[in-house]
Automatic annotation (TrEMBL), chains A, B:
It holds the Pfam family polyprenyl_synt. The keyword Oxidoreductase does not apply. GO terms for biological process: phospholipid biosynthetic process; terpenoid biosynthetic process. Keywords: Isoprene biosynthesis, Magnesium, Metal-binding, Transferase. This is Polyprenyl synthetase family protein. Its cofactor is Mg(2+). It comes from Dyella solisilvae. Coiled coil: none annotated. The keyword Magnesium applies. One of its GO terms (molecular function) is prenyltransferase activity. InterPro entries: Isoprenoid_synthase_dom_sf, Polyprenyl_synt, Polyprenyl_synt_CS, Prenyl_diphosphate_synthase.
Length: 310, 310
C-alpha cells in the first residue's frame, strides 16, 4: 500500500458521475434527509431533540449512507427511498457512537472534533439520545415510501445488524477484550459484528431499495465486497489511531493502546497492518469486477476507506 | 375506591374464559415466547445474552403483554401472532427499565425483587443489554408470521411509542422535572409519554393482529380505554410508592419523594390520588361498554391495574 494518502481517490474512468461530484451531492441529500427525519428542536421535548440532532447532524464521514446510495444505484433504486434508508442507518450509527462514548463504556470526550454528547448534555441525556435515535431509525423505516416488501427487507437488515448478534454484540466483546490479546480470528469476529454488521446492512439495504428482490449474483458480489471493506475499515481505523493527531482524527487518538484493547497494529505491527489494509482494498475491488462499470462508486468508496486520513 | 385490595379481580360474568384461568395461561404463553425469541445463553456473546434474559425473563407483571392479548381477542387475532407482538413490547419495556435504573438515571438497585442489571452485570453491560433488547424487539416484529400489512402496522405503533415523542421523551421530561412542582397538565403529559405510549401501543398492536384494519368504532373505544388505563396505572404507581414496602413492591419504594420528583400524591395528596385512580378505572370500564361482553379481559385488566398491590 502506498504511503501517499489522498482523501479524494482517482476519478473512476467510466461514464458514471465522477466520485468528486457524486459524493458531495449525495452527502448533501443525506444531510437534508436526516435533518427532516429527526424531530425538530421545536418539538417537545425540545432539549432532547436538540441533543439528538447534535449527535447526528453536521459531521461524520457518512460512509454508511454513501454505501447505501452506491449499492442502490446498481439496481436503479429511487433516490428518495435511498435517502430514507441511509438516514435510518446513520441514526443507528450515531446512537452507537453516543453510547460507546459514555463514561461506563469508552469514556471518550471528543467526537467529530466536538465534545461528546454526554460531555455536552450530561450522561442521562446521552443515554436517552441513543435510545431515541435507535427508535427513530425504525420509525423512519416504517414510514418509507417503498413497497411493503421493501420496507420489511430493510427492517430485517437494520434490526439484525443492530442486534446483539451484530453491532451491540460486537461492542460487548470489545469491552470484554480489554487487556486481552485476542487471536486474529477472534479480533475479526469482533469487528465483523461491531462495525462490519452495519456496513453490510448499508450495502444490502441499498440493494433492497430496488424494485425486485436482490438477484443472487449481485448479492454474492456485494457480500464479498462488504466483508473486505468492513475489515479494511477497521484495520485503517487501528492504523490511524496510532499515526494521527486529534485535530485530524476528530476524536481522541491512542485510546486503544491506552485502554489495552487488541488492535490490528498490536497484533501485526504497523507496517503489516498497512499492507493488510491495502490487500483488503484490492479484495473489495475484485469482488466488484463482475458488476463492471456501474459499480464505480462502490469502487471509489473502497479506495476512500483504504486511503482515508481520518 | 375501595380500600380492600385484591390481586385477582372478580371473575367477569360473561361467557369468556374467567380471568383467573385466562391470565396465567396467557402469562405462560408469553413467557415461553419471550424465552424463544431472545437469543439463547449459548449463542455468542453468551454473557450479553445471559444478561438480556435476566433483564427480561422470570418476573414482571406483563401488563403490556396481557393488554395486547386481550385486545387481540376482540378481533379474533392469531394467538401466536399476539405472542410475538406481546414479546416485542415486553422487550422494549424491559430495556426501558434497565436504562432507567442506571446510576446516571434513577440509580435503582432493586427491580422485581432482584438486583438491577447494572448492579449484577456492570454498567457497560446494562447499557448494551438495553440497546440489544430494543433492537431485538424490532427483529421480532420483522420475523412475525402475520401479513406484510400487519407487520408494518405493528412496526409503526411500536417504533412511535418507543421514540422521543413517546417513552424516551417522557423519561427525558421525568429527569428534567426533578425538584420541580409540575402543574397537573404537565405531569399528565409526561406520563402519557413515559408509560402511556407503550400501554397504548400494547392495546393497539393487539388489535392490529386481526386480519382486517382496526374498525373506527373499535379504535375509538380502545383509545379511550388506554388513555384512562395508562393514567390510572401511573396514579396507582405513585400511591404504591408511598404506601408499600420494598418486599411487596419488588423495587425501592419512596424513591420519587427522595428524588424530589413530582407525583400525583405530592400534587393531590394520598386520598385524592386514590380517588382519582378509582375514577380512572371507571372511565376505562366505561370506554369498553360499546364492546359488550367480549371485552371482559380488558375489563378485568383495568380492575387489576387499579387494585394492584405492587
Amino acid at each position: 500500500m502506498s504511503e501517499a494518502v489522498q482523501f479524494w481517490p482517482d476519478p473512476p474512468t467510466t461514464g458514471a458521475e465522477p466520485l468528486q461530484a457524486w459524493m458531495p451531492r449525495i452527502l448533501q441529500r443525506v444531510e437534508c434527509a436526516l435533518g427532516a427525519l429527526l424531530p425538530s428542536v421545536e418539538v417537545f421535548p425540545c432539549a432532547l431533540h436538540e441533543a439528538m440532532r447534535y449527535a447526528t447532524l453536521g459531521g461524520g464521514k457518512r460512509l454508511r449512507a454513501l454505501l447505501c446510495h452506491a449499492a442502490g444505484e446498481l439496481v436503479d433504486a429511487d433516490p428518495r427511498l435511498l435517502d430514507g434508508a441511509a438516514s435510518a442507518i446513520e441514526m443507528i450509527h450515531a446512537y452507537s457512537l453516543v453510547h460507546d462514548d459514555l463514561p461506563a463504556m469508552d469514556n471518550d470526550l471528543l467526537r467529530r472534533g466536538q465534545p461528546t454528547v454526554h460531555v455536552r448534555y450530561g450522561e442521562a441525556t446521552a443515554i436517552l439520545v441513543g435510545d431515541g435515535l435507535q427508535a427513530q431509525a425504525f420509525v423512519v423505516i416504517g414510514e418509507l415510501s417503498g413497497s411493503a416488501e421493501q420496507k420489511l427487507a430493510l427492517l430485517h437488515e437494520l434490526a439484525h445488524a443492530s442486534s446483539s448478534l451484530g453491532m451491540v454484540g460486537g461492542q460487548a466483546i470489545d469491552l470484554a477484550s480489554v487487556g486481552l490479546s485476542l487471536p486474529r480470528e477472534e479480533l475479526e469476529r469482533m469487528h465483523r459484528m461491531k462495525t462490519g454488521a452495519l456496513l453490510r446492512a448499508a450495502v444490502l439495504m441499498g440493494a433492497h431499495c430496488g424494485v425486485s428482490p436482490i438477484e443472487p449474483g449481485l448479492h454474492h458480489a456485494l457480500d464479498d465486497y462488504q466483508r473486505a471493506l468492513g475489515l479494511a475499515f477497521q484495520v485503517v481505523d487501528d492504523v490511524l489511531d496510532v499515526t494521527t493527531d486529534a485535530a485530524t482524527l476528530g476524536k481522541t487518538p491512542g485510546k486503544d493502546a491506552q485502554d489495552h484493547k487488541p488492535t490490528y497494529v498490536s497484533l501485526l505491527g504497523l507496517d503489516a497492518a498497512r499492507a493488510l489494509a491495502g490487500q483488503l482494498g484490492e479484495r473489495a475491488r475484485d469482488a466488484l469486477a463482475p458488476l463492471g462499470a456501474r459499480a464505480a462508486h462502490l469502487h471509489g468508496l473502497a479506495d476512500m476507506v483504504v486511503h482515508r486520513v481520518y
